[in-house]
Amino acid sequence: MKHFLNELISAGNRRKNFFLLLVVLVSSAMLQAQNVAVSGIVKDVTGEPLPGVNIMEKGTTNGTITDVDGKFTLSVKGTNAVLTVSFVGYAPQEISVKGKRNLDVTLKEDTELLDEVVVVGYATQKKATVAAAVSSVNNKDLARSTSTSAANALVGKVSGITARQKSGQPGTSTNLEIRNMGTPLYVIDGIMKDETAFNALDIHDIENVSILKDGAAAIYGVKAANGVVLITTKTGKKGQKPQINLNAHMGWQGWTKYPELLNAYQWKWGNYMKQANDGNLTGADNIANAKADLEKWRTGYYNPATGEDYRGYDWKDNFVSNAAPQYYVNANISGGTEKTDYYISVGHIDQDAVFKEYNYNRTNLQANFNMQLTDNFKVGFQTLGKIEQNVNPALPGGDDYFQMRNSIFNLIPTMRPYANDNPDYLNYISPTHDGARNMAAYTIDNAGKHQKDFRTIQLSANLEYKTPLPGLTAKGLLSYYYENMRQEDNEKSWNEYRYNASTQEYKVASTKTNTYRGKETNSKVEMMGQFTLNYDHIFAKDHHVTAVAGFEFFKEDIKNLNVYQSPVENPFVDVITKNANNDVKEYLRTVTTASFIFRAGYSYKEKYIIDFAGRYDASWRFLPGNQWGFFPSVSGAWRLSEEEFYKDSKVADWISSIKLRASYGEMGDDMARNFNSSYTDFAYLPGYAFNNGGAIISNNPLGNGPDAYTTGTAYKGIPQTGLSWMKISMMNVGFDMGFLNDRLKLEVDFFKRKRSGIPATPTDIIYPYEAGYSVQKQNLNSDQVSGIDGMVKWNDRVNDFNYFVGVNLTLARQKTINNYGEVFLNGWDQYRWGQANRWSNVKNGAVWMWETIGVFQTQEEIDNYPVNIDGANNVNLRPGDLIFRDVNGDGVIDDYDKRPLGYAATDYDWDSGNANKNPLLSMGINLGFEYKGIDFAADFAGGFMNTFIGDWHVKYGIGTDQMGYVYNVVDSWQHEDIFDTKSPWKRGKFPAVRSNNPSIRDWNDFYAKEINYLRLRNLVVGYTLPVKWTKKALIQKLRVYFEGSNLLCWDSLNDFGFDPEISSVTGFDYPQHKVYTVGVNVTF
Questions:
Q1: In angstroms, rounded to a whole number, what is the distance separating the alpha carbons of residues 813 and 820?
Q2: DSSP labels for 824-890?
C-alpha cells in the first residue's frame, strides 16, 4: 500500500508539473501575441538627442518619430519585434527588442560611412582597401553650391581635378579635366555618358561622385583615356516612412569683373590725344576747335532746340544688369517598405543673363525604384528626364551672346540708343568696329527670336540575382536614351532713324535687310546593355576575393536636319517657303561598340591588396583586324598600419594609418573625341564624298531645270588604312596617411601618363600635286602628362562645435615626346619650331615673344639707345615705349630675339583667338563649421601657372570707330598738354596712345601676364531652426541660408581688369557671375 501511495503521489506531481508547464507555454504565447510598449531615446555619437528620427516596426507600417528630446514610445507586436531606426544624414540601424522595454540608440552620421566606401569600376570598395588613385565627394559637399551645373559644384573640392570656367553665360559650365589630360568619361549609375549629361543633373539628386585618376580607369576601356568620373544618384531607404524634401533659392547675378570703359569725355580726349601724338592735329584753329568740342563733352552740353547733344551714354551700365534673377526649386520624396525603396525628384532652374531677354531654364525629373522580389532576386528601374530651353534675341553672326559683348565694347559713348531720346525710334548708328550695332535694337520684338529646346529621357532597368554559390551574383543593366533638340532662328529687319531738330521729323537713315530664318532638328537614340557576374566572398575570415566578368554593348543613332533661308521671302509667316534662297542639309550617323570586362581582387586581412582589371574593346572606326584592343591594369596596396609590429609601436599613437599604393594601366583611344579631324567614320573604305562642291550644268540631265546648280560628289581619296588605336599607359604611386585617430588625413599621388600613336601626317611621303590626294595620317607621335596631386584635411569635433578645413592641389604638365619627321634647315629653325622633347605650350611648341626689360624715360635715352627696336633706327619711338631684350646681341630686335615665355597651359589658338587650356597648378581650400544649428562653409578654388596673352583692344587702346579701356588710355604716357607735343611727358603705366606704336606691333611679355588667382567660389551661412519650433507644422527640419558665389577673387590681372578664367585674348568673353542667394531647405 505504501508503495502504491508513493507512486500515486509521484504521478500526481508529474501531472501537476505538466499542467504548470502547459500554463507557462500558453501564457508565453499569449504574451508574444500581445502588444508591448517600447520606449527609448535616440542620440548622435556626441550624446546629443536627435528629434524627428523615424522609428518603424520592421515588416509593418507601424511607426513613430522621436520628439524634441529624442524620445519615443511605440507599441509593437511582441517582445521579438525588430525596430528600424533612420534619420536624414545618418546611417540606419535595425534593433531587436528582445523583451527590453527601454532602448538607447546611437546613430552614426552617414557621411562617415560614405567616406569609407567609394565607387570604383563596376563595384564598390572600402576606401581603406582601395589600391588605385580615387578621390570622392559626397552630396553634402556638392550641395553647398547653388550652381546650375554639377561640374561647377565640383571645382575646388577634390584633388586631381583641374578646371577653368571660361564663360559665365547661362547654361555653360566649367571645363573639367582630370590631371590636365583632357575631357574625362562620365559614368552615371553604371551608364557611360558625356560631360553634357553630367552637367544636366540636378545637384540635389547626386549621392556621391568618385574620380578614377589612374590606370584603374582601364576597365572602362576606349573612352577612359582621360580618366573617369563616376556618379551615383540618390535612392530611397527600405523601411523608411515617406520623407519630403524641398530646396528653393533665389539669387541676383552680376559680372564678377569687367574692365572699366571710357566715358564720352575720356573717349574724345583720348582720340584727340592720339591725333596729336600722330601729328594729325596741328594748326591753332584746329586745336582751338578741338578744345571747345572737348569742353562741351566734359560739361555734357545739350540744346534740344538745335539738336546739339554732348551728353555721353554708358552702354554697359544701361544694357548689363547687376541683379539678373536666378530661381531654383527642387522637391523630392523618398522612402520605402521592407522590400522596396523609392526616390522621386523634380527640379527647375530659371536663369536670366545680364542681358535683357536672354534666358536659360531647365527642368529635371528623376525617379529611382528598387524592389526585392525574393530573398535572392531584386530589380530596379530608373527614369531620368530633362527639358532645357535657351531663349534670346536672334542677332546676326550666329553667336547671339558675342554680338552683345561686342557691342558693349565697340559702341562709342558719344552715341545714344534712341533718336531724340524717343524710344519709338532707334537712333541710326553706323556699324562700328567689328560690325557692332545699336544695342537697343537687340530685342525679340525688334530683331527676332532665337529658341533652342532640348529634351531628353533615359529609361533603365537593372536586375540582380544571388546564385546558390555563396558570393556569386548575376547582374544585368539595360538602358534606353532619347534626345531631341529643336532650334529656330528668325532674324528680322528693322529701321534706324535720324532726328531733324528744326523740322522735328524722324527720317529712316538705315534698314537692316539681311533677314534669316533657320530651323534645325537633331535626335539621338542610345541603347546600352550590360551583363556581369560578380563574386565577393571571404574565406577563413582573412582572405577576401572579388571578381567581375561581363559583356557590354552600345549603339548610338544620330539624325540631324538643318533648313534655312536668307533673305526671308515672307517675314510675317514663320514658315520656310521654297525658293532660290533655301539650303537644306541632313546628317545621319550610327555608332556601335562592344566590350568584354574583367576584374579580380584579393586582400589578406585588409592588409595586402591587389587588383587586376581588363577590358577588351571594339571600335567601328578601324579596319577589320584593327578593331579590337585589350586594355589591362594592375594596382596594389600595403596597409602598413595594419601590421602587428606597427600597432605596438609608439608611432601608431599619432600616425593612426598608413597605406602605400601603386598602379599601372594601359588604355586605348579611338580618337572619337579629341582627334575627330584625324579620322572620319569609315575612312578605311573607298568611295565617294557627297556635297563636295558643285557646278551649274546646262540642260541638266538630273531634271533640276536648265542651267541649275547641282551638288557634286568627289572620290574620297586613298582609303585611310594606316590608323589604329592610340595607346596610353598610366603609372601612379601614392600614399595615404591618417594622424591623431584619422582626424588629420593626407593623400599624395605621383603620376605619369604616356600617349603614343597620336595621328600625324608623315612628312617624308609626298604625293604629286596632280594626284589630288593628301597623304594619309598614321599613328606617329607621342606625348606625356606628369605631375603630383594630393589633399590634406582636418576634421574634428569639440563638444557642440564640429569643424573642418582641407586643402587640395594638382600639378600636371604636358610634354611632347616625339613629333615625327621634323625637318629643319638650320639650328635656329629647330629651336624655334621644334616640338620633340619639349613641354607643350601653344601652337608650334611655345609662346614665343619679346622680353620687356624696361621703358624709355626720355627722348635722349631713345636717341642714344644702341639697339634698333622699331626697325627704323628708333625714329618711331617715344618716351613710355617698351625696351625689348636683344637676346642674340646683333643690335636689332626681330624674330630671332623672341623666346618661349609664359606657361604651357595657355594653348592659344591663333585662328579663334582663344586660350583654352586649364592652369598647370590647381588648388582648392574648403573650410566650415557647425554649431547648435548654425552652419558655415567657404570653398576657394585657385589656378596658377597659366598665361594671359593680351591682344587687339588690350594693346591698341582706342580708335575713332571703337571703344577703349580706361587703363590703357587714361593711365598712358601723355604730354602735360595733350595738344602740345613739345610739352613735358607725364609718366603712366602704359605706352602712349598712338597709331603704329612699336611697343604693340608684335607679341611681348608686357601684355602677356602670368595668371595666378584664388577665388572664393562659395560662401554659405545657414541656420537650422530647433525642431520644437517646427514640429507642430509637421516639419522635421527647416534651414534658411545665404550663399554668395564668386564674392572675391585675388588675381594677377588687376592691371587689365579681366576675369582670370576667360579664354579670349581681347577680353570679350562673358565673365563669370557674382551671385547673392537666399534659400530654404525643408524636410517633412
A1: 21
A2: -SSHHHHHHH--TTEE--SGGGS-EEBPEEEE---HHHHHT--SB-SSSTTTT--TT-EEE--TT-S
Residues 6+ away with beta carbon under 8 Å from 46: 797, 799, 800
User: Smallest Cα–Cα separation from 973: which of 290, 270, 295, 282?
Assistant: 270
pLDDT at res. 402: 80
Measured in residues, the chain has a length of: 1084
Query: Cis bond leading into 567, ω under 30°?
Result: yes
Domain ranges of the chain: 1-31
Residue 97: the pLDDT is: 80
For 218-257, give one letter per residue: b (16+ CB within 10 A) or e.
Answer: bbbbbbbbbbbbbbbbbbbbbbbbebebbbebbbbbbbbb
Q: What distance in Å separates the CA atoms of residue 378 and residue 446, rounded to the nearest whole number? A: 58
Grid coordinates belonging to 277: 601724338
**pLDDT the model gives residue 694:** 59
Cell of 987: 609718366
Beta bridge partners of 550: 532, 597
Report the 10 Å Cβ neighbour count for 909.
14
Query: What distances in angstroms separate CA 232 from CA 88, 548, 680, 733, 939, one per listed residue?
Result: 18, 19, 34, 27, 23
Residue type, 404: M
Q: What is the pLDDT of residue 695?
A: 60
Sort strands 185-188 and 228-233 into parallel, antiparallel or unpaired: parallel
pLDDT at 14: 46
Q: 313 in helix, strand or coil?
A: coil
The residues, any chain, with a CB within 8 Å of residue 905's CB and separated by 6 or more, are 180, 917, 918, 919, 920, 945, 946, 947
Say if residue 784's pLDDT is above 80.
Answer: yes
**H/E element holding 1028?**
helix 1027-1030
Give the cell for residue 867: 639697339
The dihedral sign for the CA sequence 852, 858, 861, 865? positive
The whole-number pLDDT of residue 908 equals 43
For the ranges 12-26, 612-626, 663-677, the lowest mean pLDDT is seen at 12-26
CB neighbour list of residue 50: distance below 8 Å, 6 or more residues apart: 42, 43, 44, 66, 70, 87, 90, 107
Cα–Cα distance between 195 and 224 in angstroms, integer?
13
CA distance 354 to 322: 7
Torsion, CA 895, CA 898, CA 902, CA 905, rounded to 10: 40
* Mean pLDDT value of segment 852-866: 95
Give CB contacts under 8 A, 24+ apart, made by 890-893.
891/866, 891/867, 892/867, 892/868, 893/850, 893/867, 893/868, 893/869
Beta-strand relationship, 35-44 and 102-107 = parallel
Assign 24 a pLDDT band (cuts: 50, 70, 90): very low
Q: What is the dihedral of CA 125, 130, 133, 138, to 10 degrees?
A: 40
Q: What is the pLDDT of residue 690?
A: 63
Is the distance from CB of 129 to CB of 115 less than 8 angstroms?
A: no
3-state secondary structure of 103: strand
Identify whether the C-beta of residue 857 lies closer than 8 Å to the C-beta of residue 851.
no
Report which secondary-structure segment, H or E, holds 3: helix 2-33
- Considering the chain, what is the average pLDDT of its residues? 84
In one-letter notation, the amino acid at residue 841 is N
Dump pLDDT digits (tens) for 48-69.
788 778 888 887 878 888 877 7
What pLDDT was estimated at residue 27? Answer: 44
Q: Strand pairing of 852-855 and 908-909? A: unpaired
Q: Is 285 exposed, middle or buried (0-12, 13-18, 19+ CB in 10 A)?
A: exposed
* CA distance linking residue 481 with residue 385, whole number of Å: 10
Would you state the pLDDT for residue 238? 84
Please state, in angstroms and rounded to a whole number, the distance separating the CA atoms of residues 677 and 194: 19
Q: How far is CA 983 from the centre of its chain?
A: 54
Residue 571: what residue type?
A: P
**Using one digit for the tens of pLDDT, what is the confidence trace for 1065-1079?**
666 778 889 999 999
